[in-house]
Amino acid sequence: MNGLQLKRAREICRLTQADLADRLGVQQAVIAMLERGTREPDAELLEQISATTGFPTSFFLDYPQYEFPLGSLLYRKFNRLPSHEKTHSHRLIEQCFTVFMRMTERLRMIPLRIPKRIEDDPFTAAHLVRSSLGYDPDAPLRHLINRLERSGVIIFILPEEVVDLDAFSTWVNGSIPVIVISPGKPGDRQRFSISHELAHLLLHQTIQGGFDAIEKEADQFAGELLFPEDAACQELVEPITLSGLSDLKRKRGISLQALIFKALEIGVIDQRQANSLRVQMSKKGWRKKEPDALYIKPEKPRALRKMAEVLYGDPINYKKFADDMHMPVFWLKQLIEGYAGKEEFNEREKNLPSQHSF
């Protein structure tokens, strides 16, 4: 038995060693020894573990060769994210990555078409990335996830929402750029988080200047990538009002708070005016949740589901898929359904971009 696989399944199920031991009717020490590899379970106990966690017995006998580093989970500001949620998120994405890597053994990966590392300041870097992704210098960034996937960036979406986690990123083996997003976030928030994480991938492969400086640079990169200064100077014109910013949000797919920050950054408003706009948002209850009328639909990644369709048919043969991956059918379904299906993706591709299409 692979003790690490038991630990992974337990943490995916949000169980402590004591929780799992109680459900199995054994001592916690037994679970500890199984995870350390100093004890082997008998056939009955292995079946009990499988039934309790929902993972097939083959999962616990598997020895996957892929490790997924914590990446920006190590230095993002997760003051509200408990350590057990960070662990849970990491374990979920480990399994996503294992599924991805096992399918890439039978399929070719898309070559990386964006710079692997940029030494410039965040603003210059944002313009370089815009160009490498094929966007016009000042145009809204529509279908950002799709462009990144076609440029060799791997986008994973967690199979369940983690409330206080928007996204994180890492380089795997120094060659595979990965951005992980949590579902359930509005599209404007999702796009900023993805842009922020892209900055970490390209600018922060080594940490210099402290975590606060790194986060500030990533925010600057994201702001410039989504709304370049030249375009902002033309479109953010006085008087700056919430009504005018709402129209601009529909066009650009950027949150009201990010637009206020941009207006302050380019000097169209001063700090007093920015504070006044934020007070107005607070009175309307928009600081925590911007109005439904301005909701931007989040984009779904496509690549992982497309790989599964190529290998296991459309509709996907989940029984064969699960057997090959040594994972539960229900878990793979939950994972894959977070990605855009063929019809959904084709419908998005054939329609001309609208003001709500990002």
Shape: elongated
In angstroms, what is the radius of gyration? 22 Å
> Approximately what portion of the residues adopt beta-strand conformation?
under 5%
Average pLDDT taken over every residue = 91
Tell me the distance between the termini. Answer: 46 Å
Q: Helix segment count? A: 18
Number of domains: 2
Proportion in helices = 40-55%
Strand order of the biggest β-sheet: 1-3-2
The main pleated sheet reads as: 3 strands, mixed
Low-confidence stretches: none
Protein structure class: mainly alpha
Taken in chain order, the helices and strands follow as HHHHHHHHEEEHHHHHHHHHH
Number of strands: 3
Task: Give structural notes.
The structure is a single chain. By secondary structure, the protein is mainly α. The chain folds into 2 domains: 1-63, lambda repressor-like DNA-binding domains (434 Repressor (Amino-terminal Domain)), CATH 1.10.260; 67-224 and 298-358, no CATH class. It is 54% helix and 4% strand. It is built from 18 helices and 3 strands. A hairpin with a 3-residue loop joins strand 2 (167-172) and strand 3. It is elongated and about 75 Å long. The model has no long low-confidence stretch (mean pLDDT 91).
